[in-house]
Design goal:
The complex is a heterodimer.
Chain A (H helix, E strand, L loop, with lengths): L3 E3 L7 E2 L9 H4 L2 E2 L23 E5 L4 H14 L4 H22 L3 E8 L2 E8 L23 H8 L2 E7 L2 E9 L2
Antiparallel strand pairs in A: 1-4, 2-3, 4-5, 5-6, 6-8, 7-8
Helix pairs in contact in A: 2-3, 3-4
Chain B lengths: L1 E8 L2 E10 L4 H14 L2 E12 L1 H15 L3 E5 L8 H4 L8 E2 L2 H10 L15
Parallel strand pairs in B: 2-3, 3-4, 4-5
Antiparallel strand pairs in B: 1-2
Helix pairs in contact in B: 1-2
The chains are: A alpha+beta, B alpha/beta.
C-alpha cells in the first residue's frame, strides 16, 4: 500500500534553472541549501489566490497508480491549476510513475510541491530505464512499441528534467500555475 | 479496475471497456483483444466508459489496429476527450478511425469502404 504524507516536510531545497538550455543534467539540476520554511505559505493580505497546499509525498507500487493519479489531481487543483492543466499534469505524472515502477524499481516515490508560480513533481526510483540517460531524444519508434510516455510528459509539461544515475532515476516535472 | 465484455453486432465484435486503462490493466486488455481478434477480424472498441487511458494501453490498441488493418479493421467508438486525452496528445486520434458511438461506427463503416482514410495516400495539393 502507498504511504502518504501530506505537508509534513519542507522542500529539501529550491530547484533552479528549470528548462534552461544547458548541456547536461548536472548543469541544470542543482539545489541551493535548505532554509525553506515548513508549512503552507502565508496568504498575502487582500489576495484572492488560495493558500497553496503543502508538499505531498508518497511511495507507490504499480497497483497504486490509480491512487497516484487521484492524489495528484486533487493536489494540482488545490495548487491552483486550471482543470485542463491539472489533467495534463496528472497524465505526465502517471506516465513517469508508470516508467518508474515498470522499468526502475518495484517501489518508487512521488513528491509534489509548489515553487513560486509552478507546481513541481519529482518521481524517483532505484533503477535505470531505457532512454532516460540518452543525451538526445531516442529515435522515434512505431507507436505500438510503446515508449511514448516520456515524450508525452515532455510535451504537456512546461519543463522536464531527468537525473539518471546508477543509483536510480529521478524525473522532475514542472507545470505553471495558471 | 478494468471490466471487459464483448458482443457480436453483425460483422463486428464490439469490445466494451469500462474503467482504467493503465499499467495495472494493460496485460488484461492486451490479452482480451488478442482473444477477440481470434474470433473476429472486425473489432469495435467501445470506450464510452473508459475513465483513464495511458500511452501504454494506447500502444496496445495501435498494435492490434495494425495487425487487423490488412485483413479486417479496428475502430474506436465513444472515446471521450478528458479520460482518453492521450489519443489527442500523441496525435493518434487523427490516425485511428474514431466514431462517437458504436451505432455510428457500424453505420459509418457500412457506407465508407476503408476503415481508415489515414492509411491512404494524401491527395496531391491542387
Amino acid at each position: 500500500m502507498a504511504a502518504q504524507k501530506l505537508g509534513r516536510r519542507a522542500p529539501q531545497g529550491v530547484l533552479l534553472s528549470l528548462g534552461l538550455g544547458c548541456h547536461s543534467w548536472r548543469d541544470r539540476w542543482f539545489r541551493v541549501g535548505g532554509g525553506v520554511a515548513d508549512g503552507p505559505a502565508r496568504r498575502a493580505r487582500g489576495s484572492s489566490r488560495p493558500t497553496p497546499p503543502g508538499p505531498l509525498e508518497m511511495t507507490f507500487r504499480a497497483g497504486d497508480l490509480p491512487l497516484v493519479r487521484r492524489s495528484t489531481a486533487s493536489w494540482a487543483l488545490r495548487a491552483g491549476m486550471a482543470a485542463d492543466t491539472a489533467d495534463d499534469f496528472v497524465i505526465a505524472v502517471n506516465e513517469i510513475a508508470t516508467n518508474a515502477v515498470r522499468h526502475g524499481s518495484p517501489e518508487a516515490s512521488l513528491r509534489l510541491w509548489v515553487d513560486g508560480r509552478a507546481g513541481l513533481a519529482e518521481i524517483r526510483d532505484q533503477g535505470q530505464w531505457p532512454g532516460a540517460m540518452a543525451p538526445t531524444p531516442l529515435p522515434r519508434r512505431a507507436a505500438e512499441q510503446g515508449g511514448m510516455g516520456l515524450e508525452v510528459a515532455r510535451m504537456v509539461c512546461d519543463g522536464m528534467q531527468i537525473n539518471a544515475t546508477k543509483a536510480g532515476t529521478a524525473v522532475l516535472l514542472r507545470m505553471s500555475l495558471g | 479496475m478494468l471490466s471487459l465484455s464483448s458482443e457480436q453486432r453483425g460483422a463486428f465484435t464490439v469490445v466494451r471497456v469500462s474503467g482504467n486503462l493503465d499499467l495495472t490493466s494493460r496485460d488484461q486488455f492486451d490479452q482480451y483483444l488478442t482473444q477477440a481478434r481470434r474470433l473476429s477480424r472486425r473489432l469495435i472498441i467501445d470506450m464510452s466508459d473508459v475513465t483513464f487511458m495511458d500511452t501504454g494501453c494506447l500502444a496496445v490498441i495501435m498494435g492490434h489496429y495494425k495487425r487487423l488493418s490488412a485483413s479486417g479493421g479496428l475502430i474506436l467508438a465513444g472515446a471521450q476527450y478528458r479520460p482518453a486525452k492521450a489519443l489527442w496528445i500523441t496525435g493518434l486520434a487523427y490516425r485511428l478511425p474514431l466514431y462517437d458511438s458504436v451505432d455510428e461506427a457500424i453505420a459509418g463503416v457500412g457506407q465508407e469502404p476503408p476503415a481508415s482514410s489515414a492509411d491512404q495516400e494524401l491527395p496531391a495539393p491542387s
